[in-house]
Write a structure and sequence with these properties.
Blueprint lengths: L1 E6 L6 E4 L4 E5 L6 E2 L10 E7 L6 E7 L6 E3 L2 E3 L1 E3 L5 E4 L2 E7 L11 E3 L6 E3 L7
Parallel strand pairs: 3-4
Antiparallel strand pairs: 1-2, 1-11, 3-5, 5-6, 6-9, 7-8, 7-10, 10-11, 12-13
Amino acid sequence: MAVLIQQTNTGAGIKFPIEKQQIVFGREENCEVSLDDDLVSARHAVLEVMLNPAGDQIEYVLEDKASTNHTYVNDEIISLHRLKDGDVIRIGKNHFRFEDETKGDLAATAKLHRTWIPGVFYTKAGKKKK
């Protein structure tokens, strides 16, 4: 499973498991990651979970949504960026470390199911094996 760890001044990180196909970062309260920061746009950036073109690995893609103060990955401005384990995302004054324990291995992640919408997938909670 992949997670975002928000880095704080105290050293303790806040974990955000990536359990949805899309995670919106922004100042609005209805964003999945709502940030109380004047440098953050209302809907600043979106993290999307998708299958690679070969369909054998999960990719995590971060997109800046034309924010005023940009989105950074590893201190570089991005508009669209495929995340890899260890990347540091900066949105406003907030820093998140992206960790992907499975490195995109489809067999080690949740099973994705296709929808009728091209390129859109969802997950189902699986039964635990005894």
